[in-house]
Design goal:
Blueprint lengths: L1 E7 L5 E8 L13 H21 L14 H4 L12 H12 L21 H13 L10 H18 L4 E5 L2 H17 L1 H4 L9 E6 L4 H9 L7 E4 L9 H13 L3 E8 L11 H11 L2 E5 L24 E4 L1 H4 L7 E5 L2 H8 L30 H36 L4 E2 L7 E5 L3 H13 L6 E5 L2 E7 L8 H15 L14
Parallel strand pairs: 4-5, 4-6, 6-7, 7-8
Antiparallel strand pairs: 1-2, 3-9, 8-9, 10-11, 11-13, 12-13
This protein binds pyridoxal-5'-phosphate (PLP).
Pyridoxal-5'-phosphate binds next to helix 6.
């Protein structure tokens, strides 16, 4: 195969100057895949994906039935010395890997929280991999940065939050970035370092029900567990703002500096919602940074009837939610908003000579908005999703998921053998039997069927089974299917000894 090269002489005539030969694989190198093989197996892979996205792991269990080490034992301990054909790899993917997965996007998955995806998202992810750009600076891929800023504006409008933002990999990273910005605003830690332990130590506040990423961020930022206050929750499992205010006052009186509060809108355990407005008032009094973690629930705020979730967020300093949970954009994609980007950049911007570009004064370099340098081009899949679904399409699906949760809750409530923790305001339903032992046994029995996957939590000491709704392909009929699995699982348990039934507090 050759490329014909030519030049134009002074008379304007084209002259052949020779043929540049594209070298074939050098004979000593092992053969690697070429474009033709990529096309062939690629088409098969798309077929496989289309089937999987539509049908899930149908006909096989929704979670891996294997004991620890099963997959490991099927993988050679050393890498292959010679390259293998892609068809063989694709075959092994289906035989060795897929059966050992947890099928998060199967309609029978109700565990943890949704981590959903969609056709446009998966397609865009393939394109992202193909262009393979690194979007750390504007100049390293101008369209990637500009698209990211634009889709963040779109998301902000969808949630009624007119702030700038960027896409982080996870909520954990956004929370860490927020805490670093708070730390810098309070104590100029970049210059002198963090001095904890004595007068002026920085303190952080999370609720008992907050996600562990709050504590992890405090550890990574060098605050130390001793300076993280775990604020008790009220009966609705939301942070008690009076106790928060009292704790901040006490810390201030003791010579410490309240620096960072993380409020949660939709806790991981039970989707409880902290009173952001009241918490913001405590933060204002102490000049503390308020970060709102709405990793799961933020998506629901695209619905006008759920906009109450955003109440008080305009008084916060940062806010995040994960389109990779409930907005049909495959992992990873966490939308991180900040009221004052300059405060974030004060903590995180660095510009060594080799990263400087000609337009630095006029553009955003998104490496300055988070801990990492290298950044994936996540905006593309979000753009594909938002354009393909439209805001109305996103709303319709999320509304369906909320309705599914409500209907499942009503089935639980109407069956006298269960206790419903509360009427779900979001997509997650927590329920129990009369004793923790029986609830735990029910949980195990449900999952043992392979026909549904649910997870558990504890609230106020009680063991609860949780069912979280939000699969892209899910329909109302999946509520009935889950309910019959729960019924069948319950039928396998020994009958309850007592007749007393107490609702979990
Ligand atoms: C899922 C979740 C997180 C963690 O999200 P990552 O993106 O995995 O870091 C944090 N907070 C809440 C409330 C969550 O539901």
């Amino acid at each position: 195969m050759g490329v014909r090269a030519s030049t134009v002489d002074r008379m304007g005539r084209e002259r052949k100057v020779g043929v540049y030969r594209v070298p074939r694989a050098v004979s000593s190198a092992a053969p690697t895949m070429d474009a033709d093989e990529f096309r062939k197996v690629g088409h098969e892979a798309v077929e496989w994906m289309a089937h999987y996205l539509e049908r899930g792991h149908e006909g096989a269990p929704v979670t891996s039935p294997f004991p620890p080490g099963h997959t490991l034992a099927r993988l050679p301990p050393s890498p292959p010395e010679r390259g293998e054909p892609l068809e063989k790899l694709f075959e092994d993917f289906q035989k060795v890997i897929v059966p050992g997965l947890t099928h998060w996007n199967d309609r029978r998955f109700f565990g943890y929280f949704p981590c959903n995806n969609s056709y446009p998202s998966v397609l865009a992810e393939m394109l992202t991999a193909a262009v393979g750009v690194n979007a750390f600076s504007w100049v390293t891929s101008p369209a990637a940065t500009e698209l990211e800023l634009r889709v963040m504006d779109w998301l902000g409008q969808m949630l009624g939050l007119p702030w700038k933002g960027c896409l982080q990999d996870t909520a954990s990273t956004g929370t860490f970035a927020a805490l670093l910005a708070a730390r810098e605003r309070m104590g100029h830690a970049n210059g002198g370092g963090v001095r904890q332990g004595g007068d002026g130590a920085l303190t952080a506040y999370v609720s008992e029900e907050a996600h562990s990423s709050g504590l992890k961020a405090a550890r990574m930022a060098g605050l130390g567990d001793a300076f993280v206050r775990v604020v008790p929750v009220t009966d609705d499992l939301a942070m008690d703002p009076h106790t928060l205010g009292a704790a901040m006052d006490a810390d201030r009186a003791a010579g410490l500096r309240p620096c960072f509060v993380m409020a949660t809108v939709g806790t991981t355990s039970t989707t409880a919602v902290d009173p952001v407005r009241a918490i913001a008032e405590c933060c204002r009094r102490h000049g503390a940074w308020l970060h709102v973690d709405a990793a799961l629930a933020g998506t629901a705020a695209v619905l006008p009837e759920m906009r109450w979730l955003m109440d008080g967020v305009e008084l916060a300093d940062s806010f995040l939610f994960n389109p990779h949970k409930w907005m049909f954009t495959n992992f990873d994609c966490s939308a991180f908003f900040v009221r004052d980007p300059a405060a974030l950049k004060a903590a995180l911007a660095l510009s060594p000579e080799y990263l400087r570009g000609p337009h630095d004064g006029a553009v955003e370099n998104l490496r300055d908005w988070g801990p990492q340098l290298g950044r994936r081009f996540r905006a593309l899949k979000l753009w594909f999703v938002l354009r393909s679904y439209g805001v109305e399409g996103v709303r319709a699906r999320v509304r369906l998921h909320l309705a599914m949760a409500r209907r499942f809750a009503s089935l639980v409530r109407e069956d006298g053998r269960f206790a419903l923790r509360e009427e779900p305001r979001l997509n997650t339903v927590c329920f129990a039997l009369d004793t923790d032992e029986r609830t735990e046994a029910l949980h195990r029995a449900i999952n043992a069927t392979g026909e549904a996957f649910v997870t558990h939590t504890r609230a106020r000491g009680r063991y609860l089974v949780r069912a979280s709704f939000g699969q892209t392909q899910a329909e109302d009929v999946d509520v009935d299917r889950l309910w019959s699995v729960v019924q069948a699982a319950l039928a396998t348990l020994p009958p309850s000894r007592g007749t007393s039934r107490s609702a979990p507090a």
